[in-house]
Recover the amino acids of this structure.
């Protein structure tokens, strides 16, 4: 029983193969029978300094804190040390703000200030974090392992507090909804609230799952919200935001990714002009395997047109095996003579590029939010690991070469977050049209810069974690995951080089004609 107390001397008497106790962080464990099942082997538990002794340091240099939290291992605890309190605790995913330096953006760190966040944002952040840690984190870890799509119970829970609606950003779709239990009024909800949601969600450290929980909707629904007919909106939007139906954006193809003018999926009108007949294929479609609706980019007589397709005869989806988990529902979509009413056209016929462009800024900004926070997760992991792991008799962080790597990743993470907050502030103060004009370049640059940085940070973090950084279980599991999935950020929403060029071309367009050195 965990409530029993023992002195260190009493524990020390249980020091043989047939009667084996150890102390970890003031808790006493009977590992006699567990020894034969220990994933790290039986012999290590009999090594010098372990039987009947305080094994705290040895334990934390080899195991994550969460190991002790697993029910099957919790049961091994037989008591606690008399008059001693646990000194170690998990600083992640317990609903609290971490006090590990740089584990939180500065606006959340004690004693720091920010011009951007109000008391309302702070209350909102607390509630979102609690929600994510309680409901989403456990499902994220389980689904990331089994590759199944996110549990419907989590999607429903998210709908209860209107997380799906809030992830669409500020706007009229929030009207009449009770957001996060009423903490923020629909008309007060701004891009900083949305940034908070996105960044809190990616603390789960499960990239595929993160996309699985309705990222398709974040990029697939805005064209319906902004360009769909009132009838289409009335039919589609409520059920999607309630988490009962799923939608995805289906633009990229095997033939063309960033180059939307190179798309080959065609939509041709029937003779009576009442329907589109769509033929083609779409590739890398997030949430595609389980989507009910597809926002499809098509080549039409007038150019490029976006059309909403409902799952029906002629629409087939099959999973694509990518580097991240199949929880994301990444699909190859085939469209064979799919008949769609012309009323499903989103925006003008031939005006698809405008529909897409108006979506891209928001989509890329969301990705910047994710990338910035994921890099911070790596900083957090590296700070803890280098603090608790000893090599050559000293903690890893006592080595200058390790500290230099930490310095780089901290500086990159901080600069990205600060730039991101500046852009978010501009978004809060610009109309959608102004944003499209003035922020397409800066957002493209930020995304390019952020994903460049993230790859350097991923490489350095693997060096810091060594073999554990390439191992899917144990101490380095988040690092392995990050390093494996970081290229997604650099590709989705426009490849780095394409975005860099877009930013410079935008700047060139703004050059005063008479500017001279
Ligand atoms: C209540 C006590 C313990 C439990 C429940 C436990 C559990 C585990 C688990 C689940 C693993 C698999 C890796 C992971 O998921 O992190 C593991 C690995 C390991 N454990 Fe333990 N362990 C305990 C105590 C110890 C102690 C005291 C030592 C002593 C040095 C030890 C040495 C190891 C080693 C060497 C590995 C392999 C690590 C690796 O592959 O990187 N364990 N243990």
């Amino acid at each position: 029983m965990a409530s029993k107390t023992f002195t260190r001397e009493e524990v020390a008497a249980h020091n043989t193969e047939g009667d084996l106790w150890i102390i970890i962080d003031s808790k006493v464990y009977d590992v006699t029978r567990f020894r034969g099942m220990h994933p790290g082997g039986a012999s290590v538990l009999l090594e010098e300094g372990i039987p009947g002794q305080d094994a705290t340091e040895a334990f934390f240099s080899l195991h994550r804190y969460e190991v002790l939290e697993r029910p099957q291992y919790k049961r091994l605890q037989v008591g606690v040390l008399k008059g001693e309190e646990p000194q170690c605790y998990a600083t992640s995913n317990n609903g609290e703000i971490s006090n590990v330096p740089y584990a939180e953006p500065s606006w959340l760190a004690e004693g720091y200030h920010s011009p951007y966040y109000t008391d309302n944002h702070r209350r909102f952040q607390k509630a979102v974090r609690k929600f994510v840690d309680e409901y989403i984190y456990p499902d994220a870890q389980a689904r990331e392992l089994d590759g199944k799509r996110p549990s419907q119970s989590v999607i429903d829970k998210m709908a209860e507090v209107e997380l799906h609606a809030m992830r669409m950003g500020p706007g009229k779709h929030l009207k009449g909804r009770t957001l996060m239990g009423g903490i923020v009024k629909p008309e007060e909800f701004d891009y900083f609230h949305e940034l908070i949601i996105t960044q809190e969600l990616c603390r789960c450290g499960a990239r595929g799952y993160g996309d699985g929980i309705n990222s398709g909707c974040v990029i697939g629904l805005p064209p319906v919200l902004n360009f769909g007919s009132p009838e289409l909106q009335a039919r589609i939007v409520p059920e999607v935001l309630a988490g009962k139906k799923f939608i995805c954006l289906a633009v990229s193809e095997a033939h063309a990714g960033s180059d939307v003018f190179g798309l080959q999926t065609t939509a041709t009108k029937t003779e009576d002009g009442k329907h589109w007949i769509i033929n083609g294929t779409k590739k890398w479609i997030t949430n595609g395997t389980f989507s009910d609706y597809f926002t499809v980019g098509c080549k039409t007589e007038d150019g490029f047109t976006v059309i909403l397709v409902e799952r029906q005869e002629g629409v087939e989806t099959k999973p694509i095996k990518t580097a991240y988990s199949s929880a994301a529902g990444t699909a190859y979509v085939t469209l064979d003579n799919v008949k769609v009413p012309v009323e499903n056209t989103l925006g003008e016929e031939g005006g698809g590029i405008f529909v897409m462009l108006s979506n891209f800024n928001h989509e890329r900004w969301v990705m910047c939010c994710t990338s910035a926070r994921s890099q911070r997760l790596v900083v957090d992991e590296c700070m803890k690991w280098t603090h608790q792991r000893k090599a050559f008799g000293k903690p890893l962080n006592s080595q200058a070469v390790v500290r230099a790597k930490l310095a780089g990743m901290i500086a990159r993470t901080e600069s990205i977050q600060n730039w991101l907050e500046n852009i978010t502030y501009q978004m809060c103060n610009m109309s959608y049209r102004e944003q499209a004009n003035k922020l397409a370049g800066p957002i493209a640059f930020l995304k390019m810069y952020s994903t460049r940085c993230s790859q350097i940070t991923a490489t350095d973090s693997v060096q810091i974690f060594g073999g554990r950084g390439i191992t899917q279980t144990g101490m380095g599991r988040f690092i392995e995951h990050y390093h494996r999935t970081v290229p997604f950020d650099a590709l989705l929403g426009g490849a780095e080089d394409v975005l860099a060029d877009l930013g410079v071309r935008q700047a060139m367009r703004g050059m005063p004609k008479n500017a001279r050195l």
About this structure: The chain has 18 helices and 15 strands. The mean pLDDT is 95. The chain has four domains: 5-81, 108-213, 247-350, 361-509. Residues 352-388 form the longest helix (37 residues).
